[in-house]
Amino acid sequence: MSGTSPALTPPADAVPPVRHPDAPAPGELLGAHYGQCFGCGDDQPHGLHLQARAGEGVSITAEFTVRPAHQGAPGLAHGGVLATALDEALGSLNWLLRTIAVTGRLETDFVRPVPVGTTLYLEAEVTAVSGRKIYSTATGRLGGPDGPVAVRADALFVEVKVDHFVHHGRQEEIRAALNDPDQVRRARAFEVNP
Ligand SMILES: CCCCCCCCCCCCCC(=O)SCCNC(=O)CCNC(=O)[C@H](O)C(C)(C)COP(=O)(O)OP(=O)(O)OC[C@H]1O[C@@H](n2cnc3c(N)ncnc32)[C@H](O)[C@@H]1OP(=O)(O)O
Predict the structure, then answer these.
(1) Segments forming the whole domain that contains residue 27
(2) Which EC class, in a word (predicted)?
(3) Are strands 59-65 and 119-130 parallel, antiparallel or unpaired?
């Protein structure tokens, strides 16, 4: 069974997404938005270490290899881990729009079991934008970019200001992120919609 709930159907006044002129070129790695991010952070030992690559338009590709630490059932990936990989892939799209946004809603279909050792080939794209609301969709395929779909997700991200993190996050991490010597990562986190 699959389908998208009405909350994830763009309204009639939604417009196609516009790739930012300074977005990374197709084929370029996006890099992490925050070193400690569970989805993409290089400095996060427990993380998924997802590396997204810019595609055409407002799309990305990424690969995620399921490790023993990601199991739910014996030998199979935990669904929550797969949803995290999809969430991260979808979240990375916002860098191509140069918008900071957080996941408001994420609907996931688990179509096939994903064994440990498998590499999931993820593709994600923004489909529409309506004010602060960003609609996007993603798939994860087994064995290669043209392999069978194992997971898919539709999402609504909501644009926020940097204040969102300053108000809700812990001061020590915010300060560390502001002082990050990696200028691109700092720009991704804080300078896109002052
Ligand atoms: C320190 C480093 C910084 C890093 C920066 C990069 C960060 C990247 C991180 C990436 C990590 C990976 C990604 C992650 O894991 S992001 C982490 C997981 N997500 C969150 O923590 C978000 C928590 N939620 C919120 O903060 C608020 O609820 C938000 C900000 C989402 C909205 O509250 P806000 O008060 O601002 O706005 P609003 O309530 O007026 O809503 C606005 C519009 O949106 C519509 N709507 C809202 N929710 C839903 C829903 N569930 N279904 C359907 N629609 C929904 C709503 O109807 C309205 O529509 P309309 O009436 O206008 O038509």
Answers:
(1) 16-190
(2) hydrolase
(3) antiparallel
Mean pLDDT of 160-189: 84
Q: How many domains does the chain divide into?
A: 1
Nearest CA to ligand 1 atom 18: 103
Pocket flag, ligand 1, residue 112 (CB < 6 Å): no
Q: What is the CATH number of the domain that holds 163?
A: 3.10.129.10
Q: Give me the amino acid identity at 46.
A: H
Query: Please, what is the Cα angle at 22 between 86 and 30, to 5 degrees?
Result: 35
Interface ipTM: 0.96
Q: What is the pLDDT of residues 124-138, one digit of tens each?
A: 999 999 999 999 999
Is residue 92, in this structure, part of any structural domain at all? yes
pLDDT in tens, 5-20: 899 999 999 999 999 9
Q: Is residue 173 part of a domain?
A: yes
In a domain, 4, yes or no: no
Q: Facing residues of 156 across strands? A: 105, 135
SS3 155: strand
